[in-house]
């Protein structure tokens, strides 16, 4: 009996270093069915097969696609450095996808919005030679990395306006926990 208690206690201690995946799940559950003018066309729950990868919601129409990811990398506390690393990896992924499409990637403009009201302050935008605009926004909400990737088959100027609308929507929807 003492051994069972010890094993249970140790397992509880070990688990405390890992994230409470419920935080990311709650954010995912709060994802709307419509995002801007785009309907939700799908979602994925990666947690059961790949703990730490979380969840995603996908919104699309014929000319654009938004994917919003919610994940914690199996960490209880998400630091700004972890969000930055995730942001850098997402930018590399955008470049990789463009390369697989056989298109030339323009210069990636990466920056951090210094407005404290922004939930997703890490931003990147790039246009490809085939007319695709890619925009990325990453931040931390309730110890969960939230990553929004917007791919549009229209000019960057129009995509930037859309991205502003989308990030304003995210700021309102995820500013405070439910």
Query: Number of folding domains?
Result: 1
Oligomeric status: single chain
The run of helices and strands is HHEEEEHEEEEH
Q: Gyration radius, to the nearest Å?
A: 18 Å
CATH architecture: 3-Layer(aba) Sandwich
Provide the low-confidence segments as ranges.
1-17
For this structure, the CATH topology is: Protein Transport Mog1p, Chain A
CATH class: Alpha Beta
Broad shape: globular
Count of runs of 4 or more consecutive helical residues? 4
Structural class: alpha+beta
Largest sheet descriptor: 8 strands, antiparallel
Percent strand equals 25-35%
Number of strands: 8
The largest sheet has its strands arranged as 1-2-3-4-8-7-6-5
Note the gap between the termini.
41 Å
The residue-averaged pLDDT reads 84
Percent helix: 25-40%
Chart the SSEs and their pairings.
Blueprint: H1 2-16, H2 22-29, E1 34-35, E2 38-45, E3 55-61, E4 64-71, H3 80-101, E5 109-112, E6 122-127, E7 133-141, E8 144-152, H4 156-174
């Amino acid at each position: 009996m003492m051994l069972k208690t010890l094993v249970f206690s140790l397992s509880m201690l070990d688990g405390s270093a890992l994230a409470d995946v419920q935080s990311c799940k709650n954010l995912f559950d709060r994802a709307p069915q419509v995002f801007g003018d785009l309907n939700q066309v799908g979602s994925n729950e990666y947690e059961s097969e790949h703990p730490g990868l979380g969840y995603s919601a996908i919104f699309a129409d014929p000319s654009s696609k938004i994917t919003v990811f919610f994940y914690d990398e199996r960490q209880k506390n998400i630091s700004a450095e972890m969000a930055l690393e995730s942001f850098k990896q997402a930018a590399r992924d955008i470049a990789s996808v463009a390369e697989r499409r056989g298109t030339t990637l323009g210069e990636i403009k990466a920056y951090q919005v210094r407005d404290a009201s922004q939930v997703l302050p890490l931003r990147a935008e790039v246009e490809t030679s085939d007319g695709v605009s890619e925009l990325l926004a990453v931040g931390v909400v309730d110890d969960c990395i939230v990553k929004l990737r917007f791919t549009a088959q229209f000019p960057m100027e129009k995509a930037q306006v859309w991205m502003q609308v989308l990030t304003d929507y995210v700021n309102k929807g995820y500013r405070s926990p439910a």
